[in-house]
Amino acid sequence: MADSENQKFCLQEVLDSFKLCLSPEKEIYIEHYVSGWRGLVKLLNSLGSLFGFISKDAVSKTQILMNFLKSENGPHYATVQSMVKFELDNELVDVDKKGIYPQSGCRTLLRLHRALRWLQLFLERLRTSKEDDKTSVMCRDAYNESLAQHHPWLIRKSAGMAFYSLPVRPAFFEVMNAGTPEQVVDVLGKAVPLLCEVYQITEELYQKHNLLDLP
Ligand code: 1PX
After folding, report:
1. Counting atoms of ligand 1 from 1, which one is nearest the CA of 176?
2. Whose C-alpha lies nearest to ligand 1, atom 34?
3. Is the CB of 138 under 6 A from ligand 1?
4. Between 87 and which of 92, 100, 112, 164 could a Cys-Cys bridge form, CB atoms 3.0 to 4.6 Å apart?
5. What are the structural domains, with CATH classification, of the chain?
6. Torsion of CA 62, 73, 209, 112, to 10 degrees
7. Distance CA 1, CA 199 (A)
8. How confident is the model at residue 83 (pLDDT cuts 50, 70, 90)?
């Protein structure tokens, strides 16, 4: 595991990465999108071994995208928009569902994009929750409403078990490392609309190119 993934989580840092990932023309920079996810993985890593399989998958997906960025085709992977154009123009995506490109940038980012919807729903629940609301229930409900429909039974069960072990709300707010509960709620109030915008831009782009069901 890279050193950066062992460092302490900071909600503001994650928010900054997702802010930086939007260009003035509303293109999404993959480098900052990936840093946002890497920041979130730090929190996941502090939650214990039951979350290890989730963290491993998130790291592996961000690594695939970083490898594209560092490759000779790197400039084509600068933004989600340029990646989609490059992979479609060069037939590097399984648009006809053959599974020849199981690690294309488009299908890899699609997995994170679906997870972003979960994150958005979870953080909105956290933001509007009361002190004794259960983090595990908020997480589970957000998951069932989003990512779960893309996961097989075994993953759903393992994720469900991990959710039970989530810290209670006050302890979870501590882990988020953004100050007092009021300050956490304040940062969440800025984070949710931003994640929502990044999600919406990607969703529309993928919809336009018929990429939302990539295998
Ligand atoms: C401020 C608080 C934020 C909490 C941060 C938590 C960061 C979570 C990062 C989760 C990233 C998950 C990416 C999952 C991508 C995915 O759907 N992968 C599956 C499909 O990939 P494939 O290549 O096979 O087509 C893959 O099978 C998934 C494996 C792992 C299970 C994913 C379960 C995700 C549950 C949602 C995250 C719950 C974390 C709770 C922490 C509060």
Report:
1. 1
2. 54
3. no
4. 92
5. 3-208 (1.10.3520.10)
6. 0
7. 27
8. very high
